[in-house]
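Async update (no meeting this week)

Hi team, since we skipped the sync, here's where things stand on the single-chain job. The sequence we agreed to prioritize is pasted below, unchanged from the tracker. I ran it this morning and attached the output directly underneath so nobody has to dig for it. Comments welcome in thread, and please keep replies under the output.
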Amino acid sequence: MDRSLFRLILIVTLLLSMNNGNWGFAEEPEWTEAQKVFQELADSENPYIAKMAQDNLNQLREKLSDAVPPPKQVEIPILTRNNSSIAVPAVLDKHVMGTFLVDTGATYTVITPRIAKKLGIDLSRPKRIIRITTANGTVRAPVVTVPTITIGGLQVSQVDVIVQPLGDDILLAGLLGMNFFKDMEITFKRDKLVLTPSPVKTAQR
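Output:
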């Protein structure tokens, strides 16, 4: 057997067996060495070996780009408002930006109907309907799922939100409740909101 082919098969077999048949490497040295070997073998004069090595290199790079963990801690500037509320900038579904109040006393995150429309959410087909208490009494409100909400580079996926008007402030996109912050430690540092993700959830974001 061609020595290069044997080397390629050996490292692929070894890495897959160490990681339960997938490219989710537990240790950085493993995938660093694998990239070096695949890159070297991709230049092989044997077209079969070169193609196999390049395919594995591309797959490895794709998996590693998806597995990059978020920052251990992020600091988000608190936006100035006329009252004492805490507001921060956020990005929904990677393209809709807005100002959100931070409300650790709220169970759910809330977005306004205007933001829901920007996200292309069909409110006639909510995930469910719940009853909430507002200043005007108890109302029925739809619950929908936002694919991602990102603040300060920290992204949370598949966030259930209530769609509900929040007054006359057109700049206010919603409020971030505890179903957004549930896996984070929240602290304040002067004029910044400091978030530290839970280690258990780091790889899922």
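Quick observations from my side:
The beta strands are 74-77, 87-92, 96-102, 109-111, 128-134, 137-151, 154-163, 172-176, 184-189, 192-197.
The chain has two domains: 3-66, 74-204.
Reply here if anything looks off.
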